[in-house]
Amino acid sequence: xxxxxxxxxxxxxxxxxxxxxxxxxxxxxxxxxxxxxxxxxxxxxxxxxxxxxxxxxxxxxxxxxxxxxxxxxxxxxxxxxxxxxxxxxxxxxxxxxxxxxxxxxxxxxxxxxxxxxxxxxxxxxxxxxxxxxxxxxxxxxxxxxxxxxxxxxxxxxxxxxxxxxxxxxxxxxxxxxxxxxxxxxxxxxxxxxxxxxxxxxxxxxxxxxxxxxxxxxxxxxxxxxxxxxxxxxxxxxxxxxxxxxxxxxxxxxxxxxxxxxxxxxxxxxxxxxxxxxxxxxxxxxxxxxxxxxxxxxxxxxxxxxxxxxxxxxxxxxxxxxxxxxxxxxxxxxxxxxxxxxxxxxxxxxxxxxxxxxxxxxxxxxxxxxxxxxxxxxxxxxxxxxxxxxxxxxxxxxxxxxxxxxxxxxxxxxxxxxxxxxxxxxxxxxxxxxxxxxxxxxxxxxxxxxxxxxxxxxxxxxxxxxxxxxxxxxxxxxxxxxxxxxxxxxxxxxxxxxxxxxxxxxxxxxxxxxxxxxxxxxxxxxxxxxxxxxxxxxxxxxxxxxxxxxxxxxxxxxxxxxxxxxxxxxxxxxxxxxxxxxxxxxxxxxxxxxxxxxxxxxxxxxxxxxxxxxxxxxxxxxxxxxxxxxxxxxxxxxxxxxxxxxxxxxxxxxxxxxxxxxxxxxxxxxxxxxxxxxxxxxxxxxxxxxxxxxxxxxxxxxxxxxxxxxxxxxxxxxxxxxxxxxxxxxx
Length: 730
Fold this sequence. Notes:
With 730 residues, the protein is an all-beta fold. It has no helices and 57 strands.
């Protein structure tokens, strides 16, 4: 392996003010919620295994077995070689910092193995906040934070490029950060403060990609520029940290429009770059691989296979083998007809071998990766790619759903334990049966969790397979009957008579279901279904009703358009629907045939609302109204009373009652004073205790929460990028 030079302090000029920062020495603790003393809870992940886009993997060049991974919405992770699992590094990010769970870039310090840096910021949109840089001296166990005055885009187009963050090899105190819309930033105090880098020629814009990658080739730094038109320069370099120039002779044309990733072979002194005609991960149809002999300035086209005809794709990841000169691995990206692959060369790119052609994939640990097919794909959205610097045959690559690894270049399996990135939308904890949990998820449909400690053996619910789930409901008095809805290629609704183990599609569906499948409800005995529809553009439609497992459907004109239907848990004739536009509850007492207005004058508007019914009771309704608190009805929705102990409620669920209590335990994400947290009440919201802590906050967790009706104290929490978290009293 190549040894980098010793760290030394150098004087590098910095211009001021373009990226002023606020320095925060550590994550602030969440404000304490009012109520009783918090019990001690143990928090774990419900195991699914990945399910999200792993956008980068980085091995430390000096420490065997030390690696980091970044995701687009689920934070960063550190690899524990001894335990063969990933450790989440950003679970302490709280509600107000939800936008920081998208990791734009990461960097390690080759000369100081305990140092790691993260550039965080999920969206670069007007409604999202600014980014931040985290810096750690203990491999991510603790962090110091600098808030930036610019936005980053860890879940925007181009999120698989990079790395955009780099420790200067000439001086470990100096860091560089490439932004999308604000040029190149520089820090001379290990990320504590940042300012615009002087002399960088790229002109920032309010759109586009900006700096796509930063890489060191010896003591020379290279920066990829993603806003080229295919003819202007898209690769710059500096040898002194001040003067930048366009690299002479660089490739041009659509196949080399956007530099995606770069890797330096220090043995041969060659810099390898992947290119595409778009930043990806979607939208790429052309691409190439080139290498630059840095000593002579000679460029060579080493593209393994040129895209063409119906076989369109770009190139994504690239990494060099630190132990074998001239050995390089690259990935294709967005290659749907022939399926993406890795190409490997041992002779500097003169010849290549497709590793997919001899690959044996074992997904037995995460069966959902078949996506309902007989065999899993080798991958898609492959932009994260790394070769272990201590083991040439250990290669890992990320996809849109997992992280695959090999130790022999032939047998591949998910290397994903501990990494959970699912965006969770729906949760049911059945009162009886084998499974304690059913989940409705983004991208991977519905899952039946026989165990919480292993990925569901049936994988994604099939017949039909859904992408993202939009509805999941269980008949309260007949828990073996479950229905689900979502986006699918072969139908958008299904029912189960065995608690969600197996499914059958609805025989028919309303025309709206294809483009606007929304929530669904089943009445308490499973004899009536109500399915509502909301288009992705926000257009709302009336619910449709079925009394024959979806064989026929009829529109319910009196149902408030776009509302989520709620079934009464004890009375099969009663349904409820909350009209968020008018702040009115609507009630049906004839099995969903007609609805009439009940309580009015309730909170309304664009804020988040959730109506839930207490299990085993008729007409006991709770309305979470975000900043308007929590409201309760005990008369079937004729009237509501505001709950005085809660100032904000984002989502509410029920679990087994405490010993001696006559009412189910309540679980809430909300505020009982100041600060958003997870709470439990054992006395019908008379008082609350906070049950999470400042190390377990998971960003935005306002989608859904539920307790376990069979295990007192157990609660399941849906996160937007950290899977399903569950807690139990310690």
